[in-house]
Amino acid sequence: MSAQSGMSVIIKNAKKNIMKILAITNQKGGVGKTTTCVNLAASLASLGKRVLLIDLDPQGNASTGSGIDKAHLKLSIYHVLIGEKTLKEVVVHSEKGGFDIAPSNRELAGAEVELVNELARENRLKAAITKLGDSYDIVLLDCPPALNLVTVNALTAANAVMIPMQCEYYALEGLSDLVNTIKKVRAHLNPTLEIEGLLRTLFDNRNMLAQQVSAQLINHFGDKVYKTVIPRNIRLAEAPSYGVPVLSYDKSSKGAVAYMELAQEITNRDRV
Description:
Blueprint: H1 3-10, E1 20-24, H2 33-46, E2 51-55, H3 61-65, H4 77-81, H5 87-90, E3 92-94, E4 99-102, H6 111-115, H7 124-130, E5 138-142, H8 149-157, E6 160-166, H9 175-188, E7 195-203, H10 208-221, E8 225-231, H11 234-238, H12 246-249, H13 254-271
Parallel strand pairs: 1-5, 1-6, 2-4, 2-5, 6-7, 7-8
Antiparallel strand pairs: 3-4
Helix pairs in contact: 1-9, 2-13, 7-8
């Protein structure tokens, strides 16, 4: 089944929830997924939203980009998934970002092996988030660049999915595996899961191919493509090395402005 036809089966308008849980995922690496998680979290927080970012990638880049020293973590999302701690026990505050984060490090890589024989292993994250009650307005899930058990946990816990993607030649074809996984999760684990939208990242308006693929995405998926486009921007690339979101590093940069626009677009969608 093509990515287009598969998407048409599962794309619907995301329903309103008291606490929005947004999985930001793409099995392809290097598409700006973690950059989106950190900077969207900071932008939503600046709009007054109570935001929790959960770093589900063993590389821990979202943690580092939020100013967290992952090398010296005593508690992380790993301890939540294996059932040793609650989310409230591992959450720390990102001072520069203005949001809370459940950090990650290399320990998380062992979670999949440890959970393989556990009952309801796909529901560990959902159960942990449920215990938060109404502590947050939105929870962002930074998924690893793989369709593994941790990603399935994220999709089972989420009520909406954002797919960051570059406008390149294989963009549409690359959606197929992810779409099929989401369909399976909908069928067996989370019937309310919806794809909220596709986010064009690392966009270079001078590139004719990028413009053509962008137009093709809009033609196929209509308003499921976010109006906001995230440009290639040196400030976005530099900010993580300082352990801060781009909003704190250079709020006037094109990258910071774009993520503020995305946060506002998401907020406006949720009001509809």
